[in-house]
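Q: My labmate handed me this sequence with no annotations at all. I'd like to see what the chain might look like in three dimensions before we decide whether it's worth expressing. Could you predict it?
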Amino acid sequence: MKIVIAGGSGFIGQKVTELLVAQGHSVVILSRKERDPSGNIEYVRWLEKGSTPEKEIGYADAFINLAGVSINDGRWSKDHQKQIYESRMTATEELLRIISMLPEKPAVLVNASAIGIYPASTENVYTENSLETATDFLGKTVHDWEIKAKQVEDQSIRAVFMRFGVVLGKEGGALPLMALPYRLFVGGKVGSGQQWVSWVHVTDVVRSIHFAICNDKLSGPVNVTAPSPLQMNDFGKTIGTVLQRPHWMPVPSFAMKMVLGQKSALVLEGQHVVPRVLQESGFEFKFPTLRPALEDLLL
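A: Here is what I predict for the chain of 299 residues:
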């Protein structure tokens, strides 16, 4: 297949590209920079004055939208929140325009999303059928992003919203920072320790994206989380066990709020999310439980 990726240079985008190329697909990465093609990877300029990516793409079997300013970079100042929100809206709006200009439409748009759309809770268990929507900054951003991307259905194109959990990887995602205190022998309970961590190995993230492209019965929200979420205290203990480090020094909530501001909600609050759609569709996780996932990434 010929697959177009927006956000292909990011942490997940690079991994997705590697998988798709390894499986023989050709990949077009939308980029703001001029780059030479490499093997099965082509680069097309977009979001720049005078750029007309639709003319260079020609046709595509699928689009993947991972574009947007990272929520993990910097404090959540008002300016940064505005960048996070507007970068997603702008990129998705442009993708809708590009797709509308293509004479031959793609079969599917796989759009990034996040479990932050669900309200934080220590008691609720969320599936794709859960209707509650968080009213905080992240919840509103994810909700509006999905509504925007859903407009592609007006062009009779299947839309899939991949609600990523806490993505664990070696080079990016949350794990390097989560593991650092343990490597320094100062790991321990963060906040109450009761908040849920609905995690997923980055390998299963990219496999699920490919699965969504190929499975034409998949549409709408898809929770991309391992089937065995843990509460933060147990998550931390597992990191300590894998690294052979103690789990002893608590980090109080107020300290996290002082350091991270509003962004502290990412570690002090959580959602218990299960990947019902993926499981019922026959997707098999390579890393369904945490310890093997951490051993793969940390050792």
